[in-house]
Specification:
6-stranded parallel β-sheet; Rossmann fold; alpha/beta
């Protein structure tokens, strides 16, 4: 970890737990993290960042009260070490067997958490990753999912399935080896793999875990695996892991702060105590996003975000084709970068626009120096995502006084209220109809834009968000409890020294 300055012992301390976001990439969650950190110079921050390869550069300027950043690569070189042998190896194999059984056998799910913390101890000792790259781990999985009576057995899992599932779990469990925070508050800014060091910190050191979900991590894993090329036995193992990890995170968090009420429903369904859930909306600085000024001379739909399948730009492009059938002069401008690995998706979107006969009117603008320019570029700002939390681009566009058309996902309806039009996701015809409705009525567009800015000023300011989280940090730090009692396993446990996609 890169220590940047001497610690101030009178300051509260927070460890941010991130995955694929701050401080190594741009995007809405990264913006949110930067806002929290820069808005609280009175609190010291560390960051444990789950990354791709570990070679990603920092893309945010870190203030002096960020003490350090620890990258935890999922896809870099395999950790050093050899799998344990003898009695130690048998005990690890037994724990892994209980872990896998919980993933595929509903009757054994109670064994997930004890097995997970045993694997965490092995990971800290440098044994887990080597074990999972050894033939013995393959044999354990093969034996588990071929047991009579299990649904996964009916799919006739193959050796290739076992190799694939084991490799995915080996990568997914690497964050268990990261040194967990020993004090302060562990704040996971998403569900999933980022939570793993926080769960270990709570288990070993009694560090309170704060969980903020912007989108619903588990739902996004379900959506992503719908089109994944893995066979069903592999999906059963991987999605079983993410589901039980979500449930354990909800149970163990001292407080859950979803970015919208929609997320709360998923969290309660996953076993979270309703009394431990407190909705905290994202906020923007209205002064930083002033009214955008005159609209473009040509009817223009604008969009801002990262070029990613979850943003469903294909539906937006299909909707624009329908708009252009009615308004041949219309334009679609798409602002935002393409993450590494997303080039194929962007090419597919460009090919779709060309195939529909509108390639000349659809422009991928790339990253823009000032995001306000993206909103000012449109007569109407569009959001076509199939999953969102409480999207920054939407409330930023609202603060800029632009009318919006958005898909009804996550906290979108909560954000917009009656100041924009909301349509079903994956419905080009409905999106096109809403866009045409606003493009054809300048007075209504203007009134909606004014109402949208007022709504942001009244309900969604950055100052409200920062003040709320500062109070939450101090509340949790003051109420820190002693480490919880160790879970007693049915057989001896071994202790050790102290976006699963590319």
């Amino acid at each position: 970890m890169h220590v940047q300055h001497r610690a101030r012992h009178d300051a509260a301390r927070v460890t941010l737990l991130t995955e694929g976001t701050y401080p190594h990439s741009h995007g809405g969650v990264s913006v949110w993290c930067d806002q929290l950190v820069t808005g609280m110079p009175d609190i010291e921050f560390d960051v444990i960042a789950v990354t791709g390869t570990g070679r990603e550069p920092l893309v945010w300027d870190l203030p002096g009260h960020v003490r350090g950043v620890l990258p935890v690569p999922l896809w870099g070189a395999a950790p050093d070490g050899r799998p344990p042998r003898g009695r130690s190896g048998r005990q690890l194999a037994d724990a892994y067997e209980r872990f896998l059984t919980a993933l595929v056998d509903p009757a054994a799910e109670a064994g997930f958490a004890p097995a997970l913390y045993t694997l965490a101890a092995q990971a800290a000792a440098g044994r887990l990753s080597p074990f999972l790259r050894d033939d013995r781990a393959i044999a354990v999985l093969t034996a588990v999912w071929n047991r009579p009576g299990l649904a996964v057995r009916e799919a006739r899992p193959s050796l290739h399935d076992a190799l694939t599932a084991t490799a995915l779990l080996e990568h997914a469990l690497r964050p268990l080896a990261a040194p967990p925070p020993r004090s302060g508050v562990a704040h996971a800014v998403s569900g999933g793999l980022a939570v793993l060091p926080g769960l270990v910190a709570r288990e070993r050191h009694g560090v309170p875990l704060l969980l903020t979900e912007h989108g619903v991590y588990l739902r996004e894993r379900y959506l992503g695996h719908r089109t994944a090329t893995y066979r069903w036995p592999v999906k059963a193992v991987v999605l079983g892991f993410f589901r039980l990890l979500a449930e354990e995170s909800y149970r163990r968090a001292a407080l859950i702060t979803p970015g919208n009420r929609y997320n709360r429903l998923w969290e309660e369904q996953g076993g979270a105590d309703p009394a431990a859930i407190r909705t905290v909306y994202n906020g923007v600085d209205p002064a930083a996003f002033p009214p955008a000024g005159p609209e473009p001379d040509t009817p223009t739909l604008s969009w801002a975000g990262r070029v990613d399948p979850i943003k469903d730009l294909e539906t937006l492009i299909r909707a624009f084709a329908l708009v252009r059938d009615r308004l041949p002069q219309a334009r679609l401008r798409l602002f935002g970068g393409t993450p590494r690995g997303g080039e194929t998706y962007r090419e597919r979107c460009e090919a779709l626009a060309a195939a529909l006969g509108h390639g000349d009117a659809v422009r991928f603008e790339g990253r823009v120096d000032d995001i306000k320019d993206a909103y000012a570029a449109g007569s109407v700002v569009m959001l076509s995502s199939i999953s969102e939390g409480f999207p920054f681009t939407l409330i930023e566009a609202m603060s800029c006084g632009r009318a919006t058309v958005s898909t009804d996902v996550g906290g979108v309806r909560e954000a917009v209220g009656d100041t924009g039009l909301v349509v079903p996701p994956r419905d080009p015809a409905a999106m096109a109809a809403a866009a045409l409705e606003l493009l054809g009525d300048p007075a209504r567009r203007g009134a909606m834009g004014e109402a949208a800015r007022l709504r942001v000023i009244e309900q969604f300011t950055l100052r409200q968000t920062i003040d709320t989280f500062r109070a939450v940090y101090r509340e949790l730090a003051a109420g820190r409890t002693e480490p919880p009692a160790r879970i007693v396993l049915p057989s001896p446990a071994v202790t050790g020294a102290g976006s699963l996609t590319r």
